Please model this.
Amino acid sequence: MTNHRVAVVGAGIGGLVAALELAVQGFDVTVFERAPRAGGKLRELSVNGRPVDAGPTVFTLRSVFEEIFQRAGSRLADHLTLTPLETLARHAWDAGQRLDLYADPERSAEAIGAFAGPEEARRYRHFCGRARRVFETLETPFIRAARPGPLTLTGRVLARGPGQLRNIRPFASLWRALGREFHDPRLQQLFGRYATYMGSSPFSAPATLMLIAHVEQAGVWTVEGGMYRIVEALCRLLEGQGASIRCATEVRQVIIRGGRVTGLEIDDGDTIDADAVIINADSAAVATGRLGLAIRDSVPAQAHSGRSLSAVTWALTATADGFPLHRHTVFFSADYAREFNDLFQARRLPENPTVYVCAQDRDDHAACANSGPERLLCLVNAPATGDSHDFSHQEIESCRHQAFGLLQRCGLSLCMDSDTALATTPADFENLFPATGGALYGPVSHGWRASFQRPGSRTRVPGLYLAGGSTHPGAGVPMAALSGRQAALALLDDRSGRQ
Ligand SMILES: Cc1cc2nc3c(=O)[nH]c(=O)nc-3n(C[C@H](O)[C@H](O)[C@H](O)COP(=O)(O)OP(=O)(O)OC[C@H]3O[C@@H](n4cnc5c(N)ncnc54)[C@H](O)[C@@H]3O)c2cc1C
Model:
């Protein structure tokens, strides 16, 4: 293997995985990261001296990482202690209604039977089969493949069997499809929420996204010591392969000569030579010229209205009382249609938000590891307007008031010092992830075409590739990892074609 130089812009999951895959193949890889630490959205904040996961908290598709570690000559289990959750999540509505979902679908069906009646339990079993079939139909030809166009995907799916196409259901909205699956509106809301894992509205996202229900059903793991250990493990592997990670180094522009990539300019004005560049920054940063005008047109432009959701999060420590928090608890708003209208049409903070709470000291039996204040991440969805509207302190406080009011109506009281809640707003996310407006999941997944409009790993410029949650196959830790693998494969493929 020659000493082919690859520069990766961004040390998010997609960037780290692309870098690792290529370092393993003998490439000379350097990752440039503008933040002081690697990880991107997978970040950890210190609250009262304690580390709090402030990005992803739900770890799924463990096999994706097992394969990545294996290709790097290592074992995931030697780096991370992962524990599967028996209780996937607790769901609550005010007026004391609660429903737990379990890794064991039969246990979930029983819980649904007790919550909403035996007919809904029967419908849930049917829904599980549907969600599984969507996932199985799309896993190989779409999720784990280079981004296909609609015709290619149709061909690939048909090649797997004539009935397979029926499974995908791209033309109905998730909300409508769930309305046919369930009669109880609370279940429609619960499973509709999976659209927000792609930063989208259940009212506009395709029914295909019900596959996320299957992904969770297939396993949610906790990572001992917190999610950030995943980043540390990837960095260790990467450095073990001889690659380097330069944090606190912002890439100003990608340099193009003779129509192909020749290197980068970094923030101190230095030029770095590279034969190929993989961009893990959001693809919107490329399309808006944030990484140089020479590559601006290498990916399709994206309208602000095409952005996925942002969020307001609060990382805090508090003593929780009155409601049995689980590791993952969702407190639902009373009017989901209005919530998504606020987010996508009015583009304001929802007046009555749904609130997700990750109780990071809780185990699978909802027991808390310590008796004092526990570590919590609270999240509400927000519009990605972080570059056009800086929500005032008052607006964020009012949102917190609404969110914590819902928790209280559900019985949860949090005793905390208000100074200790570290808020992150859409404007903060825009500062962390430039050109996104704070959108956390790349382009929004609304309508059947959206999946085909998400950029793939190849761009229009030879030697320039994309990886990360804004690209195919989409957002989320395992998906971003798969995009990193796809970028590495595209680069390898193009290189072997040129030799
Ligand atoms: C609050 C929150 C909750 C989430 N919950 C979940 C969850 O429970 N489960 C799940 O699977 N996913 C979740 N996600 C989504 C998941 O975190 C992301 O999809 C994934 O981590 C994105 O990885 P990425 O490869 O796109 O890189 P990113 O994390 O977007 O990182 C990109 C990196 O590029 C760097 N960069 C940008 N521009 C430059 C430049 N010019 N020079 C150098 N570096 C640059 C940035 O600083 C950043 O570090 C959540 C995300 C957030 C924010």
About this structure: The chain has a mean pLDDT of 94.
